Amino acid sequence: MEWTRGRRILGRGSTATVYAATCHNSKETLAVKSSELHRSEFLQREAKILSSLDSPYVIGYRGTEAKKESNGVVTYNLLMEYAPYGTLTDAAAKNGGRLEEGMIVKYTREILLGLEYVHSRGVAHCDVKGSNVVVGEKGEAKIVDFGCAKRVDPEVDSGAVMGTPAFMAPEVARGEEQGRESDIWAVGCTVIEMATGSPPWTETGESPVSVLYRVGYSGESPELPCLLTEEAKDFLEKCLKREVKERWTATQLLNHPFLMTKPNIEPVSGLVTSSPTSVTDQTFWRSVDEEVEEEETEELQEDWRNLDRLNLLDCYSERIGRLRCVGGLDGSILDMEGGGWITVRVSCEGTMIGGSHEENILEGFVN
Ligand SMILES: Nc1ncnc2c1ncn2[C@@H]1O[C@H](COP(=O)(O)OP(=O)(O)OP(=O)(O)O)[C@@H](O)[C@H]1O
């Protein structure tokens, strides 16, 4: 497929940057997640899993391509359906920090429909959270970022655990196991994020390591938002069972009264967005052009500089590796978020392969 990467950056993660792009033939707006080829291990894994999935509640796969950029760098690119309305984290922020319960019901139902499908295909997502759920053209929630996803097969399971501490289930925080049930715990945490604007455990400003310890060993479950109805709280209790076997499945939760009784709100017209709905939305693109023209070169250069700087971070891997012992997470990939903590990923060999906000990493991890 012939395509051109646009100027607009839709999001940046620890190992890749997501841009808007245009397909030459169809003129469809796409999202392209790009990373340097030699750092694209996670992106290639993500592409493989995403290419095997097909659901209205999972972002659509459009192909992959290695490309030599004008600066000579070879990138690996995952092309996806473009979701124009941002993430659920953005939606809560735009709505004054929290979503109304009707919207929470709608998005939660769609996330669970996506997960029910993903789980039925033998895959666990392993990093469900508001910033990994985008809002599609019709206002529907779509799960993105399968960079931590894995096939749920005890025979080949490496035992490595991945994800974002504030959304991790107790068994994940203890480094014991990670599967479909751990995604359900993360759905509960995502509901709390939609209802309060913050993930659970983060209100006290604890460090990710102490959050991991608390989740794994304290016996506590996250505090339930007091503004939610009793039905919503009951639903959350079913997601946030500390015992893996007691946690409800996606299919069971889809039949919970919390998701059964509320009207099916169609939010598209109510959504505030600055994103284009198609490449023909010239007004949007003109305004973006004006904004980004000066920023573009600087931004792209900074992108590559960031990638280069990641090399410097290798020297901290040993110290970060020690954290894995503290959290009881041998061979883990940690994606730290909340309270100024940004993403860190450590390969199974203990080599740090990515981090999006180096200062925070150094500040937070290195004493
Ligand atoms: N298909 C898409 N359409 C629109 N925006 C997208 C799409 N995919 C991703 N994004 C945006 O880009 C951001 C980063 O994407 P993604 O989470 O896949 O990257 P990542 O490198 O894996 O991030 P992280 O390191 O946080 O896991 C998302 O939070 C979202 O804002």
From TrEMBL:
Keyword Heme listed: no
Catalytic activity as recorded in UniProt: L-threonyl-[protein] + ATP = O-phospho-L-threonyl-[protein] + ADP + H(+); L-seryl-[protein] + ATP = O-phospho-L-seryl-[protein] + ADP + H(+)
Keyword Transcription regulation: no
GO cellular component, one term: nucleus
EC number of this enzyme: 2.7.11.25
Enzyme class: transferase
Alphabetic keyword roster: Abscisic acid signaling pathway, ATP-binding, Kinase, Nucleotide-binding, Nucleus, Phosphoprotein, Serine/threonine-protein kinase, Transferase
Gene3D superfamilies, per database record: Transferase(Phosphotransferase) domain 1
Domain Protein kinase: 4-259
Top-rank taxon: Eukaryota
Classification via CDD domains: STKc_MAPKKK
Coiled coil region boundaries: none
InterPro entries recorded: Kinase-like_dom_sf, Plant_MAPKKK, Prot_kinase_dom, Protein_kinase_ATP_BS, Ser/Thr_kinase_AS
GO BP field: abscisic acid-activated signaling pathway; response to osmotic stress
Location within or outside the cell: Nucleus
Listed GO MF terms: ATP binding; MAP kinase kinase kinase activity; protein kinase binding
Signal peptide: none
Residues that bind ATP: K33
Protein family according to the UniProt entry: Belongs to the protein kinase superfamily.
Name of this chain's protein: mitogen-activated protein kinase kinase kinase
Species per Swiss-Prot/TrEMBL record: Eruca vesicaria subsp. sativa (Garden rocket)
